[in-house]
Amino acid sequence: MTQTPPVSGPDAPVRSGVRQAVRDIPAYPFTPIDVPYKLDQNENPYDFPPELKQKAAERLLAHPWNRYPDLHADTLRSAIARHEDWDAAGVVITPGSNVLIKILTELGGIGQTVLTTDPTFSVYTLEAQMLGAELVLTPLNPDFSLPVEATLQALAAHAPGVFYVTQPHAPTGHSDRPEDVRRVVEVADRLGWVTVIDEAYYQYAGTDHRDLVRAGKNVLSLRTFSKGWGLAGVRAGYLLAHPELAGQLQKLVSAFTINFLTQAVIETALEHPEYMRERVAEGIAERQRIFEAVKDHPTCTVFPSTTNFFLLKVPDADAAYRHLLDHGIVCRRQDKLRGLEGCLRIAVGAPHENDALIAAILALR
Ligand SMILES: *Cc1c(COP(=O)(O)O)cnc(C)c1O
């Protein structure tokens, strides 16, 4: 007779339907803080214009809510394709680009490598760890530029998976030289990597890497409605890719994932891109105004930024964070990240918020 192991009791083997990789990840550590000036999530400081909200609401009211939306968001993919002057078959849209990052890890990362810089956008590493991909990080150069040689070495040394190039970079706000981006993207593509150029903040930088997407085989650009467009609450992100790659990715997107509410708002926004451009222009001007106002600070330094946020280096991050809170401002601490000792990440707000921010920074010792 064979011995059956006990299914319960102290000698039973520990079993769980929840994978170890998932249990190892701490719950997402974000606690909203209720203060007047919310500069901690890189959001656009302005709500969607009221007249456009009205238009979107009319669309919603005219549409039957008992019917399923498009299976693969075809109406919205066409609208984005027209806006971007791109083939609709090369557009994939999900509720926020964070969902695309999960899908990209499923596409090329599980059991393979996810390569990015250190520091980087936390969602890339989180999804890689959760889905059991091998994570390879190349340290950013001290001036926050892309470590080109180390990246080329890492691309060659590992089985191809997913490679993230964030342009402009988060959380540093730095934009790399186009020739450096081109070099790593071309090599990665030749070696078979799926190369993701995350352009969440490209409107603020005035950059656009679509030429590398067009020239490559497995290169794509990740874009979002959460930042320049100011629609973080609606949840919509998309990618531009070759139709062949987009087709593979689309298989991983659940059916009916874009609901009609999201579709109605984004269609309305795309009909009025001028509101977005005006806000981006104001954000850039306000960023310059803040930099100008604090540039002679005796103990704090701002790092150049090409986005709607920036890093402020302070002598004591904990004290400075609490000082800003006392002035009604919440920002994000980044001082535990590699190479970002003493750094706080602060979003550019509306002018009155930036006035408060400038006063608070100038009062900081
Ligand atoms: C904000 C941000 C995104 C966008 O995320 P959504 O899920 O679309 O809101 C993507 N990448 C980076 C680097 C970001 O900072």
What this model shows, in words?
One of its GO terms (biological process) is L-histidine biosynthetic process. It comes from Deinococcus wulumuqiensis. With 365 residues, the chain is of the alpha/beta class. It folds into two domains: 22-48 and 275-362, Aspartate Aminotransferase, domain 1, CATH 3.90.1150.10; 50-271, 3-Layer(aba) Sandwich (Aspartate Aminotransferase, domain 2). Helix content is 41%, strand content 15%. It has 14 helices and 13 strands. The protein has helices at 20-24, 50-62, 74-84, 97-109, 122-130, 148-157, 178-190, 202-205, 210-215, 243-252, 260-270, 273-294, 317-326, 351-362, and strands spanning 37-38, 91-94, 113-118, 134-139, 162-166, 194-198, 219-224, 237-240, 301-302, 309-313, 329-330, 332-333, 343-347. It has a seven-stranded mixed sheet with strand order 2-8-7-6-5-3-4, with helices on both faces. Strands 9-10-13-12 form a four-stranded antiparallel sheet, with helices on one face. It has a two-stranded parallel sheet with strand order 1-11. β3 (113-118), α5 and β4 (134-139) form a beta-alpha-beta unit. α4 crosses α5. The longest helix has 22 residues, at 273-294. The mean pLDDT is 95. Pyridoxal-5'-phosphate binds next to α4.
Strand order of the largest sheet: 2-8-7-6-5-3-4
Q: What is the helical fraction, as a range of percent?
A: 40-55%
In N-to-C order, the SSE pattern is HEHHEHEHEHEHEHHEEHHHEEHEEEH
Distance from first to last alpha carbon = 77 Å
List cofactors, ions and other ligands.
pyridoxal-5'-phosphate
Sheet with most strands: 7 strands, mixed
E-strand count? 13
- Might you state the CATH topology name of the largest domain? Aspartate Aminotransferase, domain 2
Modified residues (N6-(pyridoxal phosphate)lysine): 227
Enzyme class: transferase
Protein name: Histidinol-phosphate aminotransferase
InterPro entries: Aminotrans_II_pyridoxalP_BS, Aminotransferase_I/II_large, HisP_aminotrans, PyrdxlP-dep_Trfase, PyrdxlP-dep_Trfase_major, PyrdxlP-dep_Trfase_small
